[in-house]
Amino acid sequence: MKLLLVSFSIGCLGALLSLVVSDRYRITVASLSIIAESILSAFASLNVIVDEKRYSFTATQVLPLFGIKLTFNSVNALFIFITSFLAVAIGIYQMGYGKHAVRAKISVFTFPIFITSMLLIPLAASVVTFMAAWELMAITSIILVLTDHKVNNKVGKATQWYSSMTHLGAALIFLGLVILVTATGHQQFSLIFANIGRVGTPEKCIAFFLIFLGFGSKAGIVPLHIWLPYAHPQAPSPMSAMMSGAMVNLGIYGIIRFDMMLLGRGANWWWIIVVAVGSITAIYGSLQCVLNSDLKQLLAYSTVDNVGLMVIGVGVSGLLISAGELKFASLVMMGVFFQLLAHSIFKGMLFLTAGAIQYNRNTLSIDMLGGLLKTLPTISICMLIGVGSISAIPPFSGFSSEFVLFEGLFQAVVHLSGINAVAILMGVTGFALAGGLTATAFIKTAGIALLGISRSPKNPPKTKIPFTMIAGTLMLAISCVFMGMFPNLILDILEKSTRTVFAKNLLNISGSFGSISITGMTSDIQVLILFCSSIIFILGIYGISKLFSLRKLRIVDSWGCGSNYSSLRTQYTATSFAGPLQKIFEDIVKPAHDIKSSHAEESKFYIKSVKYTYNFQDRIEMVIYDPIKRLILIWGKVTSNIQNGSVHRYIAFGFIGLLAVMVFLT
Amino acid sequence: MSLFGSVTSLLQILFVLLMAPLLNGIMLKVKSRAERRVGPPILQTFYDLRKLFKKETLRSNNSTFIFTLAPLILISSTVVVIVVSPIITTGELFNGSGDLFAIVFILLIGSMSIALLGLDAATAFGGMGSSRAATITSLSEPALLVSVIALSVQAKSTNLSVIVLGNVHHVSWLLSPSHILAISALLIVIFAEAGRLPVDNPATHLELTMIYEAMILESSGENLALVKLSEFMRFTFLLCIASNLFFPFGIDSTKSWIFIGISCILLAIKLIFIVGLIALFETTQAKLRLFRVPELLAGAFVLAILATISGIVV
Amino acid sequence: MKILDSFLSLFKAPLSKGISRPSNGYHFSTINKSLTLRHVDVGSCNGCEIEIASAFNPIYDAGRFGVALTASPRHADGLLVTGVVTQNMVDPLIKTFDATPNPKIVIACGDCAISGNLFKNGYGVKGPVSEVLNVDVSIMGCPPHPIDIVDTLRAIADPK
Ligand code: SF4
Questions:
Q1: Nearest one of A617, A584, A592 to A436, comparing CA atoms
Q2: Which of A142, A168, A196 is the last residue in one of the domains?
Q3: Complex ipTM, two decimals?
Q4: Is B62 in contact with A435 (Cβ distance < 8 A)?
């Protein structure tokens, strides 16, 4: 615990120091403080998880009236560990990236504080502490999104979306918690939990859904996901990696911590709704992800998709709890934790690679990329690893995590009956559809961006990628492979956190080194052995085929059907790659096509130029948010008539108000 | 790691390796016969592969290491799933790893690597093939995953060996509506994944109508041979799994050597029978338009969901 | 090996009608019972194409000797060239030839491809195929009869 507090103070100190030092060292100072802070807190949290320790800390003087209350146990230690592990890599990455790309002084200063606030949130043990940390995170992250506002005009819109959604979420969470506080009369979580019996059922339901929606908006459940694809891409890459990799986790943390652990086992329809929302989120997110062709926006949508999977898992776990199947509930929960961990790391890494690509190529549109495997080999291989992870193929981390989650869902299908089983089937449907679409989306990303040749006609000046950027990305890539190949080590750690959630020892990690095997699961996958044997197969088959073949290799031009074409524009692009899917799901996404052709003056039969525009917007934004925006505008117009700045009118208002009060009082 | 397990795993690989080209030859022969032609000899696929291994390999100057690696990954992922699944015996090596979910995702490695291969050489047709194949994969994958659940519900296990053994011991499972629905979903998915009619025409020569062929237009020599061989092997593997799930009798569950021999022969007969039926079916089919394929796969998806529901309810 | 091959080819030449010279690295040992061809139309009147199509139909069925047509020269063992080479097709023909992995064979199918036929000195005509590539095998006729085509292809694919 002390270690953790020391690490926080290092973070804040580093932030302050970065304001003082000269421009040249600013980024380095900030990044070093991030690295130091996160290494310390990673160690502290790992220590807590492994030893299953429990600490609490109270500082009454810090916040007026209520003071700060923190607890540190192996559940929140897991979240702290994820955040800080990611932050180490991002700190390293930022040292290289920030030198040129992050110019705003304030962002450099804010970033360590943002990370500190994210480390603080899971620790909070009372409502006030929690809300304070939450607001700190909200404000710092808004500043980070605003970083590039001078060069990029999309930032304004993104920040508007982000700040309104995040405050809406905070308000919902606050309301939900306030209901609990007023019903129980305590604001410390442990006391709320002890007195949860005093909360009536309707209040419980309202609190549950308020908290779910509030945290859901941070996590990005549909239809509250709308800010993700705006805000995540606009922040500089280290920051968006942090937001997509770690901040989103806190939404899930909130759902687990408050809805599941605090409110206890609720009615099963709560969780059925959660599963339904989760599966809609997963499907919608992956669909948008497939169709998108902006690298960072695509990644943001894939975050929505992954959040959907986790929400499905949380919902199924809750269903199993309310049905009394605690063993399988904890299996599913373990899957959720694994998915959280895996997702943070591979998504963080993919954002870092996106940043590196932007750094080198100056564009994020996949339609303009290509051939990066030849120009940026290390970054590209990292990206391939990330793609493998996210598509859940062995031996990468995504496979292990989704495997545990899937086994949990399967056990839930087998062990529940009636409406609950059908609800879980809904979750399975979401899981399955999202899985297929995600794989396609990332075949597209990797295939178009890394392979082939560059699709942009003019090559921007090649900037060399600094070593630290590669190192940060590589660190995450290696841990993706590590988590995939030695899942038993990770499961050992996760099991401890799961045990704390359920306050019971329900699962047993058996099985040999490098395998996934948990009691309650029906198979044990020996990922490591399978991987090694497939390497042997690859080498063996390569050797045999070399033995048989004439050992001749000739380098030729690509086959262009005999014509002299330059394959620059004849290659498939990301948009055309997703063309069939876009046509298949046309009813859902409703893209806007427009073909404009101009004719030659002599005759309209001669076409001078044809311009095809294609544009697709988030459908949910159009259907749900646009009317709301319009309503708000109308409301604004109405009120501006009332408040037109004329002093006379205000005096009149004051007079009427006073009169009304007096009449009312008498 | 028992001796039995290792030897039978090798046997399984050999079995699929030899059966795959043979089955393709048989299919071609049956199809030709149905069209009233003599058709190529049954061993034609072997001849083709032998020739391709002897030929020179061309590599595009735009390509990367993916170009060489992808076929190897494809074939070795196929070999790995063959090792872990019960094909001629339920006592194979790495018994516990023969999980249906894992198999689905190991097969996905192959699909992904071949889709990347299509994009590697910067040609238009390669990208077109990859795009179409990825589209089909993205729709068949969900159907496959849900039918995995449907197939596993009765045995309460996703381990393929356990399911197959359960099917051997409980004949009533085989005729339950859940099982039949799940198998039909699985068959549709197999047709889509293996690029057979009505999803894709393996005999087409027109680039614009190709799906799977288009991705490998750029490969030649041994690369091509590896890709073709592993595609035949994947198809054979999927058929083996389908036949073991649908009609498992004859598969060795006693771990005795004699039974292994019998099971090899029986499985070969079963496969030849299935393949003959498929060939006859294909002669009556025309290729579906690409945008009709999702309807077919959505059908498979719905079948799989129905199968799961009936598995839970019954 | 090479001597043996050429010796064998001498020995087998009479069996297959039109084999002129095995010059493009064409080995009997490689193309054995399996011959995949890429058809290139360099300026044909489509008479030859109709006959080639007939050669692969159920009646003549060239497929039974392991002969097949393919869409990509990368998969092919040779080119089946029809028609007189027009100026515009010189480059594509050479490109297709380059795109075919060794060992490969060039078959000139039809009189146009062999000699230029009546288009020989026509406008925009480069000449017969032999002006651009080394032709290994010729199939005579205007258009050649499917039986001739099948016969030649068979002789190449299955020289025994
Ligand atoms: S040889 Fe005769 S049939 Fe063939 S292309 Fe020439 S003119 Fe036409």
A1: A584
A2: A196
A3: 0.92
A4: no
